[in-house]
Design brief:
7 helices, 3-stranded parallel β-sheet, 5 strands, globular, about 10% strand
Length: about 140
């Protein structure tokens, strides 16, 4: 696995009007080398797509196709992150003023010693402060 992938990059890839050359390049890397995500990523992405259906940005069929596309990629949910949520992840959230959700991505990148693919500026700032290579911004 090549990197930790967050939901902001994932959603930018799925929404054609948000896909940048950098995002498309990251997903080429994911297709060939895979990625790790905390298990919450699955719910974040599915929820965002469901909200987009409700807002009529995409159709339910688009959402289902997008989820099927993601399921076919070599993206591995890291279950170890769940056991670290109340200690290491909470400490990262406090230190960097992040949500627990964002801190979960950072904790995973730190633990696996992988780059973090994100478009979130606060998460990017925190990752860089902890010496994590940030991709996407």
């Amino acid at each position: 696995m090549s990197l930790v992938l967050d939901s902001s990059v994932t959603l930018a890839w799925l929404y054609s009007d948000e896909a940048t050359p950098a995002v498309l390049s990251l997903f080429e890397q994911v297709i060939w080398e895979g990625a790790f995500v905390p298990s919450l990523w699955i719910f974040e992405v599915a929820n965002s797509l469901t909200m987009a259906v409700r807002q009529k940005r995409i159709t339910a069929s688009d959402r289902n196709d997008s989820l099927a596309d993601l399921a076919s990629l070599p993206i591995e949910a890291d279950r170890e992150a769940e056991g670290r949520a109340w200690r290491e992840t909470a400490q990262l959230a406090d230190r960097h003023n992040l949500s627990i959700y964002d801190a979960a991505y950072l904790q995973l990148a730190l633990r696996r010693r992988l780059a973090l693919a994100t478009l979130d500026s606060e998460l990017s700032r925190a990752a860089k402060a902890d010496g994590v290579l940030v991709l996407g911004i």
